[in-house]
Amino acid sequence: MLAVLLPAMLSCARQSKLSLLHSGALSAALELPPKQYSEAAVSGLQVDGNTARDTIRVTGPDGREVYIMNAVLDEETGEMVATERLDAAVVTARFSNVAERGGKVDLKFRIAVPAAMQDSHWQLRFYPSMFALGDSVRLDDIHITGRSYRERELRGYERYRRFLSRIAPDSAAFISYRSLEVFLKRNLPGVYAFRTDSSFVTEQQFRSRFGVSGQEAVEHYTRRAALRRNERLKENRGKMFGRYVKSPPADGGIRLDSVTVSSDGDFIYDYVQTVNVRPGMRKVDIVLSGEVLEFGGKVGDIPATEPLTFYISSVSAFVDPLERYLTRIVSRNAEFSEHRRIVFGQGRHDVDLRLEDNASEIGRVKSTIRQLMADPLYELDSVSISSFASPEGREEYNIRLSERRAESVAEYFGTFVRHIGDSLGSTRKIEFLPRSGGENWAALDVLVASDTSLTEVQKYRYSLDRDSPLADDREEKMRHRDSYAYISGSLYPGLREVRLDFALSRKDMIKDTVVTTQLDTAYMRGVQCIRDYDYETALALLEPYADINTAVAYVALGRNRSALAILSDMEKTATVDYMLALVHSRLGDDAPAVEHYLNSCRQDRSMISRGNLDPEIYALVRRYGLDDILYEITE
Fold first, then answer.
1. Against a cut of 0.85, is the pTM above it?
2. CA nearest to 71, candidates 79, 81, 59
3. φ, ψ for residue 218, nearest 5 deg
4. Which of 132, 295, 417, 458 would staple 483 via disulfide (CB 3.0–4.6 Å)?
5. What's the CATH code of the domain at 463?
6. Pick from 488, 513, 538: which residue ends a domain?
């Protein structure tokens, strides 16, 4: 009889728990860890209404109401004194202040599950959710699994494993090899001979020789009934998993899956969630909900708790939004150069597009000229064309040849400009000024020094020859070196180049220089990066300025001594004093930290409220009892 009543009683107990859960009388608590309690986080008092009172009110026979109270003996007077036991007030913190550091905050909260809520046959699944900026994010689950629930879960997996063991992985297991071998030996001895033959025979060769395919022989001796039964087992794998494993564990996204051995104590889990702070994120709400699972499925829901709110404080609030401008001197004239390798025939000076890469090089110059002529800001005034030659031959001849080549290039591009001027609507005359660059010894020096094929000895000998004051003597000495063939064949062609110097002037500008101011875009990007909590990028942009915003980036990244070096030299405004208090408190210098904080509050009373948001400042207020002084400041 007892064996029948006991399960029924346990089932009734679980139903009673479910009723309490649905009504809200029994629930898990979402609260702050004890160390996070502060005066700023206390939201109210909650009185336990289930405690019996020591005072009762009764109505006497005459209709008068009489209060009956508990009494204790006063040891000094010897009289009985009425007393009443007051219910303990339970202080419940529903919000906390958290400090953003490096673009992140750590949200620390506690999930407390009372012993009365736990059951050996249940699995409690808790789903914490985070709400911020109108979005919600499901955090990792917490599972509390009863011992009996887990044992049945494991038994279900064992039953499913035994089911899987009945499935043959390969259809070859259903072939009657003995019967097949006897058949082949008696009826097809030629086929049977292949039993010990390791050579490969195709299916077509097999059929053409024996009139039957290997596949047909195998299918004839396959136990088809057993094979069909095996296929049915494979098809039923999903169905059998659902039958044996009623509540499979969640796949990922679980912070904790704890098995409770007994339910004689509360279950407490301290949850820490690191969150990347987004622009505009001032607070985050955490809500806890869940469900109750009994083996076989869900049996009830755990109602959502009241939100636990975290208010985010950030030093980014101290960013100075004032725009910074740069003073810039604008010159009327501008110039830039292009080097192009235009090849000429031996001893010739006419421009030939068919030689080597001339068409491509000249095309690039044309593209540059066309862009400059169409530029809305500048006008192209002139183009100086310098032609250079390699050192072989007499210097005097090379100078005359390079001059004629420069003249040919100038004439060629002058014709091009006149041709496109009409299409671009340009009537401005552009001068092309040819110049002889002579032998290009300067470029040869660079090529020899950077060349990896020449030895150090060969480079040294070149430097000795290079010291000759006359160009023809240099080249003559080089001809007797073992490196000359390489230098003349590999390096000389790179010396035959044309340099174009473009001279431009600003349109509608009369003065040679104008002083103007423009927004410092790099600085303003750094300020925006602070607002976006991208402090590393902000510091890279703001470090050269060494101002209040640079200090904000340093403080946000925890580089306190670097911030202190900047803030110490600045005018002591309310913001600077507050940040100095913050930095000194982090460095363990409490005396200057308190002094700067009080000075900040005297300049700006809002810093008193701000001090409750930063853990370092709030700790100073509590440690040194600054409330009275702060109260006097507000008066």
1. no
2. 81
3. -65, -45
4. 458
5. 3.30.1330.60
6. 513
